[in-house]
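Appendix B. Extra example for self-study. Work through it before the problem class; the solution is given directly after the inputs so you can check yourself.
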Amino acid sequence: MKRFLLARLAQMVVVAVTVGALCFILMRVLPGDAAMRIAAGRYGPDAGIAGAAEKVRLELGLDRPWPAQFLDWLGDLLRFDLGHSLVTGAPVIEELKTQLGASVWLAAAALFLSLLIGPTIGLLSGLKPGGLADRLGLAGAAVFRAVPPFVLGLVLMLVFSKQFGWLPPAGFGSPREILLPALTLALGLAAMSSRVTRNAVTAVASAPYFAFARYKGLPEPVVVRRHGLRNAAIPVVSYLGLQAIYLIEGVVVVESLFAYPGIGHALVHAIVERDIPMVQGTALTMGLMFVVITAAVDAVSLWLDPRLRRAS
Amino acid sequence: MRIVKALFLTLALGASVPLGQAHAETLKIAGPWEIAGIDPAQTGYVFSRLQVAETLVTADREGKLVPGLAESWSVGEDGLSWRFTLRQNAVFHDGSPVTAETAAASLNRALAGVGVLSQAPIAKIVHEDRDVVVTLSKPFSALPAYLVHFSTIILAPSSFDAAGKVTGIVGSGPYRVKTLTPPARLEMEASGNWWGGAPGIADVSYLAVGQGETRAVMAESGEADLVFSMLPVSVDRLKADPKLDVQIATIPRTRLIKLNAASPFFDQIEERQAVSLALDRTGIAKVILRNPELAATQLFPPAMPGWHAADLPPLTRDIEQAKALLAKAGWTPGSDGILEQDGRRFSVGLITYASWPELPPIATAIQAQLREVGIEAKVSVGNSSEIPARHQDGTLEMGLVSRLYSIVPDPLGTLLNDYAPGGSDWGATGWENAEMQDTIAKLAVAGDPAERASLQHRSVEILQAELPGIPVTWSELAVVSNKRIAGVEVDPLEVNYGVAAIRWAK
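Solution. Structure tokens for the complete assembly:
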């Protein structure tokens, strides 16, 4: 356990430095004048951008040599200071708290909803491959996977906001507003996880130990609970780890559509506006989150599957 | 497990809260403007339009300058010394009075920063008793119009930290900031001490919603009472909704092709005229903007009295004449139909940006129309800073821009900038005209209405004849309000949304 944690900690440090350096280099090789981009981001497209850019350049010291700028960033990082956004002027950590925080809640709500939908349908489909539930599940998965999130989001908005007037189409802060964006994401996620679960359950259900449990006369619910769920969960949990990552990356469209102030939306703006501290801070935090998520998935897999523990 | 429980509760609560009950008394506004950074030069317009902060001078619906925090103003004999007398009953939201001293401090801050004030010939700004005194380095009759701009809002000293950075917006308007969650939400409440009386609705919330489709659904579902800037495609559907009122105003914003008149493609006036004659403005306005009336027959729309010259021959489409003009300028069709001159193909870049969703489709329409006269335009959609950057380094050929002429309520403010010697970011590139410069310089000083009118007419005439930029379409602003509110008035200049005058309908 100690070795596991130490290895993950080392991984985190490597991720932090690599991500920071990569962002720094990539943002500098992007074409276009950073001061112009920042000025356009700050003052909008109606302003006299060229004049504003000169003031921005002076204010931010953008013409300093870049190794000095990178060392500054690294020094600040060691003091756990992510700096200030070049566009809004607010501390990056504050922006992350609001925006990354909002995205994490959205992702968690979406994952939770998808867990209610996906594995349930998968379990029903997998227990009777080729049955009605399986075929309906396949059709549903194909449809929800194929429809792009912004179309699905608009359809949900038209149905639940416009037609029924149950849920607000945009906003954030109260529980009502998270439902539609979370559902949009969850349906796409459930489409995949239901099929992964279905295949895992089918594999387990056709395994000799599962047949043996039935032969020895256990009732069906007990067979599924004792011998089915844990075995089928192993591939599903590994897959959920991937989905969690997809979620944090893939919320951009959904966040823009539902006017949800999340990190996907913020990151796109930050890149367009050359807000380097914001990009670095976001990438860093997200990189570290990925390390934590994969570590959590590994830990759960270890707990689920004793064979892995013996192997290590 | 507790997290799962919390999530479950969140979702369950979300499903069970009935619509509209949670914010029954709040006026809900949605618009496209995000609040990225609270410095007045950046997002001051959010706070001035929503009446959190005020400027010394403001403008009415017709664009006439009217008193804001200053109850009157006058200029000395020499035309250099302007005196703005503050109203005595104005109070900031923190309870401190609005004095000439605080106002001068805010203005000096705006003067030093980015914003329109630095474009006026201001020598210094000081305070004397109840007056803010602005001393100019040369006469400039448009000064009061510059003090309408959102970057000149007057903030209380408590808005700034020790370093002079804005940390909060403490203004003097009818509403004060209750909570601000950048970049999307602003909640406001009646300040209780506005000089203009109590607003009709005490609680107001603003939500920034970037997608036009989402804003339309917000209006339709009743989740927003007042929604700004609707997409043309949604307007007809919204008009048919019995619960909603749609108001449309022509705004002083023109989409135009910015040409590099110094490049070999557009250095002759015939070439610029040919580009203009190749454009099917009515088609673009009808299909993309859903209103053929928006086809720009000259730079300024009829809704701008004094700046629209009805007697000028309109810009129209005439493919044959365009071809004849190009032939006269020395261009002959090549083997693939694209024009050539001295071995150079008439192939130019047309850059635009996505800050306004209609610009990229208009650019592709222009591309197809120019192809008909033998001009190849390569469209690229980038960031809004691309055009000023290419203007600066001289590599710009054509750019499709959306230019606002009410940055200060007097279009002169924009013209002074756009057609200054050396051109400007959003104005002329490679085009200089001594008479134009002379005319707008005279306009900047002229006070007599008749003299102004004739100078304005002359400047529009020059622009129409020389075409340093080619007007494509005018713009309108569509505002949707729910019938449960009354008193909504659209401000074409977008200076002030008049939120305080809105009340619940009986």
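Self-check: Chain A has a mean pLDDT of 86. If your reasoning did not lead you there, revisit section 3.
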